[in-house]
Amino acid sequence: MCGALEAGGPAGRRVALCCHRGSCLLGNQVGGALEGALLCPSAALGARRARGSTRRSPGSQRLKGLSLSQLIVQFACLLFTMASSDIQVKELEKRASGQAFELILSPRSKESVPEFPLSPPKKKDLSLEEIQKKLEAAEERRKSHEAEVLKQLAEKREHEKEVLQKAIEENNNFSKMAEEKLTHKMEANKENREAQMAAKLERLREKDKHIEEVRKNKESKDPADETEAD
C-alpha cells in the first residue's frame, strides 16, 4: 500500500491514500493536523504535482530507512488514532494496479483542547469580618506562643532552683560530715593523750613507790648493822 497524506482546511482534515503493490502509507497526527509520508515514488510524484510542488516531503525522508513490517505497524497505529474521530471515505480513482481514496476527518472538538489560564487566578478579596477573624486568630497564636515560652521559662527557673537547693544541701551535708569527722578525730586524740598521761603518771607513781620501799628497807637494815658492829 502506498499513498499521500494531506492536511485539509477548516472544513475537515483530509487524508489522501492510494494502494499500490503491497507498499504502505504512514501518517502522523501533529497538533490536530495530519502530517503525511509518501512511500511510493509514483504516488508521491502524483501528490506533489497535485499540490503544485515537486519537492520531496520530509516525512518520506524520515521513513526511508524503515522496513515494511515497521511501516505496517505504524500505519495501523495511525488508523487506530483516527478511529476515535468521525471519518468519511471518498474514492478518488480506481486502477488495476491499486486504488486511491480520500479520508475526510471531522474538525477537532473544542472540548478536547484544554484551556489554560494566561494569568494565575486572582485571590479573593477578604471582607472586613474575615480580616478581623484572621487578626484574632493571629493574636491567639501569639498569646499561646507567649504563654508557652513563659511556661518553659518558669520550668527552667524552677529546675535551676531545685539544682541550687540540692547543691546547697549537699554542701551542708558535706560540711556537717566533715565537722563530725573532725570532732571525732579530736576526741580520739584527746582520749589518747589522756591515756598516755595517765600511763605516765602511773609509771611515775610506781617508780616513787619503789624508791620509797627501797629507802625503807635500807633504813630498817642500818640499825641492825650498827648493833652487830658494837
From TrEMBL:
A Pfam family this chain is assigned to: Stathmin
Coiled coil start-end: none
Presence of keyword Thylakoid: no
Gene3D superfamilies linked: 6.10.280.30
Keywords: Coiled coil, Cytoplasm, Cytoskeleton, Microtubule, Phosphoprotein
Name of this protein: Stathmin
Gene Ontology MF term list: tubulin binding
UniProt cross-references to SUPFAM superfamilies, sorted A to Z: Stathmin
Source organism, top-level taxon: Eukaryota
GO CC aspect terms: cytoplasm; microtubule; neuron projection
PROSITE patterns xref list: STATHMIN_1, STATHMIN_2, STATHMIN_3
Compartment(s) of residence: Cytoplasm, Cytoskeleton
GO biological process: microtubule depolymerization; neuron projection development; regulation of microtubule polymerization or depolymerization
Positions of region (Disordered): 185-230
UniProt KW Transport keyword: no
Similarity comment text for this entry: Belongs to the stathmin family.
Compositionally biased residues, Basic and acidic residues: 185-224
